[in-house]
């Protein structure tokens, strides 16, 4: 969520390149559609001609967590996706962890936009990468040369 503008462009290019190999295959991207790299991934899946599955962590996720600056992209991408809502009323740590587990159950591989820094708390990208690796799921880490986080 805190990618610099230059990093957003680098990540977009890297994701397009990574997904290019799947253009002629059945590409299904699964994401929780959070602002930042989740949305960049969803856009790259659609650009590659793939199908999108959005896992909402809770019933209140759209209202409680989607900020006004992200709402247009969220709504546009959710409108073309199969949307699955996890059985939680409130978007909290339990709901996020359940959504990540469901994402990993549905995935053949994990694409993680990640700088390699361990998670500050439970449930971050580092934890998801670790869980995927423990499950034997291939992991593509996307962090292009020159990428950086903003303040």
Could you explain the architecture of this structure?
The chain has 151 residues and is α/β, with parallel strands linked by helices. The protein has a single domain (5-142), classed as 3-Layer(aba) Sandwich (Rossmann fold). Helix content is 43%, strand content 15%. The strands form two sheets. A three-stranded parallel beta sheet has the order 1-2-3, sandwiched between helices. Strand 4 (110-113), helix 6 and strand 5 (139-142) form a beta-alpha-beta unit. Helix 1 packs parallel to helix 2. It is globular, with a radius of gyration of 15 Å. It starts with a helix and ends in a 9-residue tail after the last strand.
What's the SSE pattern? HEHEHHEHEHE
**Quaternary organization:** single chain
Beta-strand residue percentage: 5-15%
Q: Given the structure, what is the number of helices?
A: 6
Q: Between the first and last Cα atoms, what is the distance in angstroms?
A: 11 Å
Low-confidence stretches: none
